[in-house]
Design goal:
Layout (H helix, E strand, L loop, with lengths): L18 E3 L2 E3 L6 E5 L7 H13 L4 E5 L3 H13 L4 E4 L4 H10 L3 E4 L1 H4 L6 H11 L2 E7 L5 H7 L4 H17 L5 E6 L3 H14 L5 E3 L6 H16 L6 E3 L6 H14 L7 E5 L10 H12 L6 E6 L5 H7 L2 E6 L2 E6 L2 E7 L3 H16 L3
Parallel strand pairs: 3-4, 3-10, 4-5, 5-6, 6-7, 7-8, 9-10, 11-12, 12-13
Antiparallel strand pairs: 1-2, 13-14, 14-15
Helix pairs in contact: 1-2, 2-3, 3-5, 6-7, 7-8, 8-9, 9-10, 11-13
The protein binds iron/sulfur cluster.
Length: 367
């Protein structure tokens, strides 16, 4: 039969130039990628590679490692070589680490314009060495380390100040014929951040890396990032994303992927459609939804599972899903593709849903 049409998106992607971060293309011709940053000491090569492996398994496309000192730079070759996903060296101040990262086989280097001023005169050489090695660059403007001159001009890190910094820095690389870079203009306030990216998107065709800096602990950071990224991605702005959480980096990847799935920018995988519960509920919906979610964690097939607390909206939603339960009277009606396949006692709902999900996944041939 005909392949299913792609699911709708809110807006076409903004056209950008294309760059490569190792094997991952970044730009409007490629799907929006998800990145995170390791929290291990970069000098701890095994620990860092272990964390990169966990991130890769969680669906991370690109990983960044901090490179604050010589010992970190010395660990880069082993990390870049053994990582399954492209490695970006995060460098704030020192050009010598930029050269070391390029030599180490890193896919890309992140530089911070607030500090690059100190090595303005080296942009030419950085451009040449990066171009020769096929290494791309991220110009990472950050509200917390904005150039002094711009802080004096604007008084604080306004969207205009962030964008002026980015555009100036981009021009330094472009003057030397180097175009393989993406830009970020991060701020901890989603409103300022969104405005900065909107302004930046009007100024050039650079691929953009989205991020809300210091977004906070998991709950707040997730909301801030989802709100800000959602606003931008819904306009087609953003080519790679990094959710920053004061939580393990694997959580950042889960949140990032969930944001993209929610906007149909990635195929949806497991989706639990559970009701909020209300006075009509005849079952503990929270615990039921939690148990089903936990039981199906890691399932890599597209599957909508409806968990409904009563028979009012229950059967309707359960029917729309691939699989579902509508509870009532101490029992659960189990639906598969709209048909009630069985009714089980409440105590057997979770295991039955998990069993059925596994069966559907097996039959789909994707599991
Ligand atoms: Fe309430 Fe039933 Fe709707 Fe759940 S499905 S919110 S229990 S009416």
């Amino acid at each position: 039969g005909m392949p299913a049409p792609p699911p709708p998106v809110l807006s076409p992607r903004r056209k950008t130039r294309q760059i490569k971060v190792g094997k991952v293309g970044v730009g409007s011709d490629h799907q929006v990628s998800v990145q995170s940053m390791t929290t291990t000491k970069t000098t701890d090569i095994n620990g860092t590679l272990q964390q990169i492996a966990e991130l890769t398994a969680a669906g991370c496309d690109i990983v960044r490692v901090a490179c604050p000192a010589t010992e970190d730079a010395e660990a880069l070759p082993a990390i870049a070589q053994k990582s399954q996903i492209p490695v970006i060296a995060d460098i704030h101040f020192q050009p010598k680490y930029v050269y070391k990262a390029i030599e180490a086989g890193c896919a890309a280097v992140r530089v911070n314009p607030g500090n690059i001023r100190k090595f303005d005169d080296q942009v030419k050489q950085i451009s040449k060495e990066a171009a020769d090695a096929g290494v791309s660059i991220r110009i990472g403007v950050n509200a917390g380390s904005l150039d002094k001159r711009l802080m004096e001009k604007y008084g604080k890190a306004t969207p205009e100040a962030l964008v002026e910094s980015a555009v100036w820095e981009a021009s330094l690389f472009e003057e030397h014929g180097f175009n393989d870079f993406k830009i970020s203009v991060k701020h901890n306030d989603p409103v300022i951040m969104v405005r900065a990216y909107e302004l930046l998107a009007e100024r050039g065709d650079w691929p953009l890396h989205l991020g809300v800096t210091e977004a906070g602990p998991a709950f707040q950071g997730t909301i801030k990032s989802a709100t800000a990224f959602g606003t931008l991605l819904s306009q087609g702005i953003g080519d790679t994303i990094r959710v920053s959480l004061s939580a393990p980096p694997v959580e950042e990847i889960k949140v990032g992927n969930q944001i993209l799935e929610s906007l149909n920018l990635r195929p949806r995988k497991l989706e639990i459609v559970s009701c909020p519960s209300c006075g009509r509920a005849q079952v503990d919906v929270y615990s039921l939804a939690d148990k089903v979610t936990a039981g199906l964690e890691g399932l890599e097939v597209p599957l909508r599972v409806a968990v409904m607390g009563c028979v009012v909206n229950g059967p309707g939603e359960a029917r729309e899903a691939d699989l579902g339960v509508a509870s009532g009277n101490g029992k659960g009606q189990i639906f598969v593709k709209g048909e009630v396949i069985k009714t089980v006692p409440e105590s057997a709902i979770v295991e039955t849903l998990i069993e059925e999900a596994m069966r559907i996944a097996d039959e789909s041939g994707l599991a």
